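Researcher: Before we compare anything, I want clean individual predictions. No alignment, no superposition, just each chain on its own. First chain goes here; please echo the sequence and then give the structure tokens.
Model: Echoing the first chain and its structure:
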Amino acid sequence: MKKASVLVLLLMLGNFNAFAQYEEDVKSIDSITEALYASISGEKGVERDWDRFKNLFIPEAYLMPTGVTQEGEVVYRRWGIDEYIERVDKSFLENGFLEVEISKEVDQFRNIAHVFTTYESRRTKDGDIIARGINSVQLFYDDNRWWIVSVFWSPESPDHQIPAEYLGDS
């Protein structure tokens, strides 16, 4: 019984140490949103640091894109962290994908925060913009660090342009 407890403790410490390198990512609202964009971004052929990405989220977190079907129906999808990685990893690696924040609005009360972060996406650093939109990021602070609870986003479309107040100085 004691050996099993020691083994579990060692495994937990090993996992903690694996994520210790990402400690700066979760110290502030700005650092966690910067790390979110950085962890999914990279040129063609560059593998993403999915451990860094996973470290940003509570285990039960969801990533939820919205969109419009060919039939005009407004829909959303809901993916867990691992499901999101499975869906995007190959495409990001084969095509490149870089996303940057161009504006941010933050509301916070006690240990919760909502970040409305406007993004631009490209395939290469100097490439054409392939998408713009807004990420709605919900955060939780546990008196130790920030955690992403969910990321809910909507891309810009010709019929639904991003309002000027969410474009910052860009």
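Researcher: Okay. Second chain, same rules.
Model: Second chain and its structure:
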Amino acid sequence: MTEVNITAGSFKYSTITYFRGKAENVEMGSYGQKKTPFAAPAYLSIQNKVKTEYLHGRVRFVTRTAVDWTKETSADVSAFVYFSAGVTTAVTGSYDKAKSAKLELIKFAIDEGPLKTMLNTDASGARNFLRDEGSDGRIVTEIWVVVEAKLAEHFQTSTSISVADVAGTAKVTATGGVQGTQSITISKGTTFAYLMYSVKKWNSDKTRIEDLEDDQVGMT
């Protein structure tokens, strides 16, 4: 099992440290200003999010990971929601539930290439915000959500992932897995941890993004 570590403000998986600050507000494609308050977890102050339709064909399932919840503390885990097989909406979990149930984390991501294409060709609102905001502008490109272990296995074994817009939220469907077809609705309140990208380089008149870079907890 890959080593993980959970704190109130971060989630470390392998060598990458993800944000947990105000994760309940974050969705895939949320963008805004990165805030780094003194003596409090860094977080994304959300301006808006890209249209769900722009996520289709660009979001992929990356991995799953088990967590030894008994090694974490109730203060660090705090309240969260999780998904079960056969149910598209999440239900509220707790530290005690995490210890007693077989709950894992699964990760979804938009890779840098598709992200750059999305910002340059479709999501002009997000692109213009990142341009105007400057060095503090961020967009969420990777999220972790909590699911039952059998649902994590389904996503891991699925042959395709699709994203559909349902009343402004992202319904992620995995087909061809061990349980046929399963869907979860990723909306505000379902994100456990997240990673953001910033713009590293623009073209000469700042109308197109040429390079992006990821941002982890502890980076400026």
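Researcher: What stands out in the second chain?
Model: The CA atoms of residues 87 and 184 lie 7 Å apart. Additionally, The mean pLDDT is 94.
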